[in-house]
Write a structure and sequence with these properties.
- The protein is mainly α.
- It has one domain: Growth Hormone, Chain: A.
- The chain is 79% helix and 0% strand.
- Helix 4 runs antiparallel to helix 14, helix 9 runs parallel beside helix 14 and helix 10 crosses helix 11.
């Protein structure tokens, strides 16, 4: 499952970046790029919530396999549409939305499976392994996409992802049946509501969700990357790939060298510290972009040594790598807390809610950045967002006593 998911994820990240470049090339608008995420927001939320219900009602392996089939079909649809050379942007929005919905349901089912395969004390290590997977996805995928788009074009990039996606089926097919424990659940709205109600008696999980919402909504500058590569730092598609991959480098390094993260008992404090550090790095990115804007250095959207503001590119890449490492710390502890403290019969629905938070926050953040970017001040969204994240982490640290005192030896939601 890990190997298949990693290979598939590399291809998916290629497509995500390629869609952003595709829309920007057709419209020359960062706001239109942000609509890629906004368009998929409501369907993704519904898929996360109902996908959690399905994962608590049926064999989680089958739920993941069927969802993966739909995701593969939408990826093939993107490739076919691109090769057709049709002009309208709307089909791109529709296909990437279908892909997002299906991928969300795959992720919910897969994460609900993990605690059934390993012992509780190994969950932090599994989280670090997930960090390695995510780092490989976000490092290789966007970098490869940047090179492919610049070299052979967007259509071939979509096509290669269609081929890579086959690995998902192999990874999921090799799993045993994973049926939920306890009484059989009838899928429906009532089951979704039960998941929401569980959060009322799960203050630690609820607070970790809130922290992630702040981090991913206000600290996700990815929709700025095409404009940064075109007019601020220079380098075009290759710079977009470098900046996106820099985030993943931090995730990957943290996953490979997790140090003593697995031995930390106060995992709630780990979540708060990771989010605060993430906010500081995003704020620093805003400062770097501001300095690049006022420097007036000549740049170009083509890739060459003379067309790039190298100090700004290096500084931005370092800060984004640090942001990836900080986010990985909070991710490992959030996942561990959820998987260790939530009963198996409820785990799919809570994982669905968690997936909505993790994937919905960045999409709201894309819209937030896109709206602010119409001012042409590309440095302003990360500068403001980083400050908001740090303040939110400080407030929750002070207000949520149970999260501060969370003990991995006695996990309570």
């Amino acid at each position: 499952m890990w190997v298949g998911g990693t290979i598939t994820g590399i291809g998916s990240q290629m497509t995500i970046l390629a869609v952003g470049l595709d829309v920007y090339a057709r419209t020359q608008s960062t706001l239109m790029v942000s609509y890629v995420a906004a368009f998929a927001l409501v369907p993704m939320i519904v898929a996360g919530l109902y996908g959690g219900v399905l994962a608590d009602s049926f064999d989680r392996r089958i739920v993941a396999l069927v969802s993966a089939l739909v995701a593969w079909g939408s990826t093939a649809g993107l490739a076919a549409y691109s090769w057709s050379q049709a002009e309208p942007v709307l089909p791109l929005y529709l296909l990437i939305t279908l892909n997002t919905v299906a991928a969300t349901m795959v992720g919910v089912a897969r994460q609900a499976i993990v605690p059934r395969l390993i012992r509780r004390e190994l969950l932090p290590a599994a989280g670090a392994l997930g960090g390695i997977s995510g780092g490989l996805m976000l490092t290789v995928g966007p970098a490869l996409a940047g090179v492919l788009v610049a070299g052979v074009g967007i259509s071939w990039t979509y096509t290669i992802d269609t081929v890579l996606f086959v690995a998902a089926f192999v990874g999921l097919y090799t799993l045993p049946a994973v049926r939920p424990e306890g009484e059989a659940l009838r899928p429906g709205v009532r089951s979704v509501v039960e998941g929401w109600r569980f959060l009322r008696v799960a203050p630690n999980i609820r607070a970790s969700f809130l922290l992630d919402i702040f981090a991913m909504t206000f600290g996700n500058p990815r929709v700025l990357f095409p404009a940064i590569g075109a007019v601020l730092i220079g380098g075009g598609a290759v710079t977009v790939g470098v900046l996106t991959s820099a985030i993943a480098v931090g995730v990957l390094v943290l996953g490979v060298f997790p140090g003593r993260l697995g031995g930390v008992r106060r995992q709630g404090l780990g979540v708060i510290a990771g989010v605060a550090a993430y906010g500081l790095t995003i704020l620093g990115l805003g400062v770097v972009l501001l300095l690049a804007a006022v420097s007036g250095a000549p740049v170009s959207s083509s890739w060459s040594a003379e067309s790039v503001n190298w100090p700004a590119l290096v500084a931005a890449s370092v800060l984004l790598a640090l942001s990836g490492a900080a986010d990985s710390v909070s991710m490992i502890y959030r996942n561990t807390m959820l998987q260790a403290s939530v009963p198996d019969a409820m785990r799919g629905r809570l994982q669905g809610l968690f997936t909505v938070v993790v994937t919905g926050g960045p999409r709201i953040g894309d819209l937030y950045v896109g709206v602010l970017s119409v001012t042409a001040l590309l440095w302003f969204p990360p500068l403001l967002g980083g400050f908001v994240i740090v303040v939110a982490a400080a407030v929750i640290l002070r207000a949520q006593r149970t999260l501060r005192e969370y003990d991995a030896e006695d996990p309570r939601p």
